[in-house]
Amino acid sequence: MDKNFAARRRRDLIVAGALATLAALAPLFVKDVYVQNILILTLMYAALSQSWNILSGYCGQISLGHALYFGIGAYTTELLFTKFGVLPWFGMLAGGGIAALIAMGLGYPFFRLRGHYFVIATIVIAEIGLLLFQNWEWAGAAMGITIPVRGDSWLKFQFLRSKLPYFYFALGLCCLAWFVTWWLEDSKWGFWWRAVKDNPEAAESLGVVVFNSKMGAAAVSAFLVAVGGAFYAQFLAYIDPESVMGFQFSLLMALPAVLGGIGTLWGPVLGAAILIPMTELTRSYIGGSGRGVDLIVYGALIVAISLALPQGLVSLFSRAKAKNQVKNQVKGATR
Amino acid sequence: MTALLETRGVWQRFGGLVANSDVSISVGRGEIVGLIGPNGAGKSTLFNLIAGVLPPTQGSIWFDGEDVTNLPAAERCQRGVGRTFQVVKSFETMTVIDNVIVGALVRNTVMREARGKAHEVLEFTGLAARADVLASDLVPAEKRRLEVARALATEPKLLLLDEVLTGLTPTEAQTGVALVRKVRDAGITVLMVEHVMEIVMPLVDRAIVLDLGKVLVEGKPADVVRDPKVIKAYLGDRHAVGA
Amino acid sequence: MGLLYGLIAVGLALIFGLMDVTNFAHGEFLMIAMYLSFFLFAFFAIDPLLSAPLVAAAMFVFGAVVYLLIVRFAMRAKTNAGMVQIFTTFGLAIVMRGLAQFFFTPDYRSIPQSWLGGKTISFAGIFLPEPQLVGALVSIAAFAGLYFFIHRTDFGRALEATREDPGAVALVGIDKNRVFAFGWGLGAGLVGLAGAIMAVFFYIYPDVGASFALIAYVTVALGGFGSVFGAFAGGIIVGLVEAVTALMLPPSLKSVGIYAVYLLVVFIRPRGLFGSM
Amino acid sequence: MTISRRDVLLGATATAALVPLAARAQTSEVVIGVIYPFSGGSAQQGVDAQKAYETALEVINKDTDFDLPLAKGEGLPGLGGAKVRLVFADHQADPQKGRAEAERLITQEKVSAIIGTYQSAVAVTVSQICERYQIPFVSADNSSPSLHRRGLKYYFRAAPHDEMYSAAMFDFFDALKKKGTKIETLALFHEDTIFGTDSGNAQAKIAGERGYKIVSDIKYRANSPSLSAEVQQLKTANADVLMPSSYTTDGILLVKTMAELGYKPNAIVAQDAGFSEKALYDAVGDKLEGVISRGTFSLDLAQKRPMVGKINEMFKARSGKDFNDLTSRQFMGLIILADAISRAKSTDGEKIRDALAATDIPGEQTIMPWKRVKFDEMGQNNDADPVLLQYVGGKFVTIFPPQAAIAEAIWPMK
Amino acid sequence: MLSVHEITTAYQGLVAISAVSVEVTKGEIVCVAGANGAGKSTLLKSIAGAERPRSGTVTFDGKRLNGMAQHHITAAGIAYVPENRRLFPRLSVRDNLRLGSYLYRGEADREGPLDLVFELFPRLSERLDQRAETLSGGEQQMLAIGRALMTRPRLLMLDEPSQGIMPKLVDEIFQAVLRIRDAGMTVLIVEQRMAECLEIADRAYILQTGRVLMQGPAAEIKGNPDVRKAYLGL
Q1: Measured between CA atoms, how close is E84 to chain B, in angstroms?
Q2: CA-to-CA dists, residue A182 to A12, A50, A62, B99, C81, angstroms
Q3: How far apart are CA D221 and CA A141, in angstroms?
Q4: Of the segments C201-205, D111-115, E34-38, which one has the largest average pLDDT value?
Q5: Do both D177 and D191 map to the same domain?
Q6: More confident: E64 or A322
Q7: DSSP state, residue D394
Q8: For residues C73-96, average pLDDT
Q9: pLDDT tens, A221-238?
């Protein structure tokens, strides 16, 4: 059994490595910038969703306010860059750090809340953040911040036409988020989080410090999301509160994980790989009609997937595994 | 040598309701102590106080020679208090082995060691064949055993068992009894709540009867079941004879 | 205004709070109700005040059908039922918006004239716009009715029981789907009432629900899930806080006041003001 | 009304859906990208814009007898009569999506130029992308002054921006004051988006320069569920003039709330947007008798220039609406852009840019009351004179500047 | 009265009971016993409609039950008290009982059986306004049986009524079962405490790994040496 387990872990790593390599080679074949753009967004949302999944999927604290951390990452990076000339690379880390600190600060009061009360509190806090930025003159308020793009530069992480550097960064971020999840999954923290999600009281009785576990998950999750936000800001070269802190980001971070399989290693990646291209393509190719058909298709797909596969798309893959499990059960029952 | 566990004049009130009043009990090292009493006598509350789910309104709790009254549950677990829940609280979305690993992580921070420990405990409790099954797919009796396994994985000095033998046929219960004995033989002190007198009385070294939040009687099982106060409050006439 | 929030929230309180089903399409229910009211006015010249019961009835059917066709299945999920509900109803909301745009066009509509529109009662220097006054009265009546319904009728009891344990009501011969379909119908019907009154003084377009939905959620949570009276009180508090914040802060920040009060309340009372769950 | 519109729309859907499969642009065809919100809260503007562009397309591609550039003859004479084809894209008011669509249009659809976008925030990113790909971007209807001040080479705006509009308003106030009307205090009411903020800032700045007192400056959250508290404050301030900068939705709510709370200002001078929308007047027209809005277009120009009326009829046939401030700008924007492409005799971005920079169209050859169309080095047309219109008896009448006015302002409004 | 004919029920791909047949005659107390996982609870669930049998038939007074929705089966006269009782924890004792008579809400005297419930379990009448969740385990079991009686069943099915209950109350509950039978109802009971159960039962079935191992009059089963060894631990 131990062997099985180790083999599964190794197999996950190998599959991920293969996928990452495949993805890294994709630009050799995909020259179309529009498609590249979709790939970048897909990778970015996969990374964001993977990060969201740490807190909400593994630790069970459903947050619909992660746009706050996304926005903080974006704003920290760009404010530091435009006001103080700090390179985005440092801004990114600073943004991540600040987001993690805020997540922990918010954790103190928030983690006492349960269920809907918690979810609504996360929505509300992100909304407050949005309103504050919308009215914060120094940070550009509603006008946002336009990032001066002066030509290709790795140092400033900006590129005029080439999407490749962004692509590789997004890929890297996605791999990082995946790897962090993979690593945490078989660590004390990973076990603690899942225990806290399933039954905090029992977890506490087994020596799990529930509160600290939640804090840890929140910090890791917020940090990664903020780095994603910083990336998005650099990628877009323009930010305003609505476009980096709006509620839609919170949803878009959660959706891939939910569709793919919440609290699973592969769910977010799988969900993003299907959802994001679908969103983009329905908008691009049927959105121009002005008749809302794209919305109908998009919404109906979400409903259909939620209803048909409540465990997410990964459950399709685990069918085979489930069969094995039944076999084990039979063995166990007839023992 | 001091007792492993001692409660000194413990009170617990919930609003106007008094769940425990002035409960002082002690459990010595290596003992199996049975805690019995009518439903609602405050047994579960006392368990929760000992496990640290909530602090007592008044009084103190001493474990292993130290005052642990104000320590949270997780900290008490680290010091060696393991417990099961009357209403089974497995981690439903995790497999059996993963459930046990959570417990094992208290003493083993290296994953490989924790996993090894968990396998060991599953063997010990006879759940090894079910290691990779989701906890939600276990039948109730297995879930109770999982509760015990999980608590054992924390390598406790004191194990609090809350109705783990409930709902078993007499034969099955015998296996359970054997397991509890095995646990004690491994050097773990056991404090257990149980209703099925036929099973629990031969097993325990000492029985404590709670009624209306107070200690009613305490002593050797044979004496306890003959105590008229116990018969009146708890056993009813028939069982007094039966036991 | 607070009572109007309360009226919008009460339907949600029923679905979200009393049946413990997340409904992210609540704002869209409101939108549909407003359109219904608009079309009844535009084609048959029925004043929104008169059409309110019609709209409520139509919405009742709509809500029940939505439950039976979609939500029922979302509730069957064994694991992460919460997320499945959130995203099913969220998807539903998007579909409803799309359909509204498809059939009603994205044009802004509004009802120019009605018996109530634009009339104001001046009372000791305080102006009370009639539509909102009527809204407030309807809202109070709706709350009273719902309160009575939940606490004094067998059906209300059955609803509570079904929320507590949907699997167990069959043990006493209750069909949970009928109870919940009725509950959803009632919730949607109440939103229908709100929509009809809103239509008098608000503009109507496919995305109109979004601005109200969040406030409605906050209102329900502030009052506490599972409490009709809580939603009522929540509505009043939200209205008051909004008015007060608008005086103290730049008006663009007035919602911050509402949100802050929500956070404050749940930090002190994690189950809202009157919540039981 | 819906049936005929739906048919038109169906045609558009089919085109839009098939477009990506079509062969890339040949010389016989020039492709122009049109980026608007076609879903979400401002979908109506997108759909209206679509009709305006289709009207312009008809003028360009068919032989029509108007005194407009490209009207006569079919297609673009500079490119041997090549036809213009439009590709519509939906940005859903999201700068990221606008950017992605711009990039898609440029690289996949091979558009020669892009026109858009209604929301200013989206114009920011779309124009950035155009700059990077050296494709001209014509900002048809964005009025935020900050847009052209970013040093972009490929950005062009034929229409006025909010500072020009605001200046016109204050010119108007100054003129009234000379005649003895009392205008001292102003109340600003603007939403918290780029448009509202820019407009509010411009008005505040000019008011300060010209000695008007702002007694209330209210920034409110766009699409609020309620504006009662805000209107209460306006009422308390009771300024001589109320100057709202709001989109349609908030405009409707503002006017209705004002009526409910019994607030009747002396005058409302609006920063266009919602206040030029038919929907607003359909909803609350009776309460807006005498409201003044800035604009760049007025139908009564048809009295002087008959073609304005005829083109308006063409538009009306498609949309069921009259031209308004937005749709007229969109119409004109495409004409100007297509004219430049024709003169560039090329579909190359840089050549079109140069042709645009060299544009000089006299005002008479537009449907707008502008002096002429000529871009400065920042791509802004400073000769696009705004007008002030007053809503009287169910339609707009030009009241300012004097050379365009056909009636005197009614002041106070009721 | 109740006739279960060769039903097979499975969940998650595992067969829990296969081809089990059980007969219950009017006025009987029938006990079903067996080890954990033998399929006793599944049998009751299959009759009550909480699980759908894959094959076989369940008929009650000549009416075929399988395929019917669970609430219709309740309405047909079978009351089922599941193992975990499934009370409405946040509702009062009174409301729990009232919900029991939900099917008769149109009737003037809808709470007819209430007297019987209070007679059987006098302590419930003292706790009418308490929330069900604040009752002790034994009282909850009484309430669950009481609620089931309020549906005016002809057949009452109890799943492990003695589980987790102190000895004194176990007796009370078994006595109550006898009285319920005397009041004209039929009882099908699944029990772990076979000794006590066989004492009050008329007939008994023993299930093992999903099949009927043995059946017959209770006294006979109790005397069977194999049973004594395997199940009674004697």
Answers
A1: 10
A2: 8, 10, 20, 19, 25
A3: 12
A4: D111-115
A5: yes
A6: E64
A7: T
A8: 79
A9: 999 999 999 999 988 888
Of the CA atoms within 13 Å of residue D72, those in its CB half-sphere come to 5
Q: Specify the pTM.
A: 0.85
Number of helices and strands in chain A (H, E): 15, 2
Where is average pLDDT lowest: A99-113, D11-25, D372-386, E60-74? D11-25
Res A333: pLDDT: 41
- Nearest C-alpha neighbor of E95 from the set A162, C164, A146: C164
- Cα C196 to Cα C9: distance, rounded to the nearest angstrom: 15
Q: Chains contacting D with at least 3 CB pairs below 8 Å?
A: A, C
Mean pLDDT of the region C47-68: 87
3-state secondary structure C194-250: HHHHHHHHCCECCCCHHHHHHHHHHHHHHHCCCCHHHHHHHHHHHHHHHHHHHHHCC
The mean pLDDT of chain E is 87
The mean pLDDT of chain C is: 81
Domain membership of residue D408 (yes or no) is no
Architecture of the structural domain at B1-80+157-243: 3-Layer(aba) Sandwich (3.40)
Backbone φ/ψ region at B156: left (φ over 0), alpha (ψ -120 to 50), beta: beta
Is D353 within 8 Å of D134 (Cβ atoms)?
yes
Q: How far apart are CA E147 and CA E95, in angstroms?
A: 10
* Chain C residues within an 8 Å CB radius of A296: 94-95, 98-99, 102
Is D168 in the same domain as D119? no
What's the CATH code of the domain at A66? Answer: 1.10.3470
Q: What is the DSSP letter of D411?
A: S
C-alpha distance from A123 to closest chain C C-alpha (Å): 9
CB D277 within 8 A of CB D303: no
The question of ipTM being above 0.90 is answered as no
How many Å apart are CA E130 and CA E142, to the nearest integer? 14
For E150, the closest chain C residue by CA position comes to C172
Asked if chain A contacts chain B via 3 or more Cβ pairs within 8 Å, the reply is yes
| Model confidence band, residue C123 (pLDDT cutoffs 50, 70, 90) | low
Residue-range definition of the domain harbouring residue A193: 3-334
Structure tokens at D198: 């820019």
Domain that holds residue D89: 5-160+303-373
Per residue in B207-224, pLDDT tens?
998 888 888 888 888 888
Residue D85 lies in a domain: yes
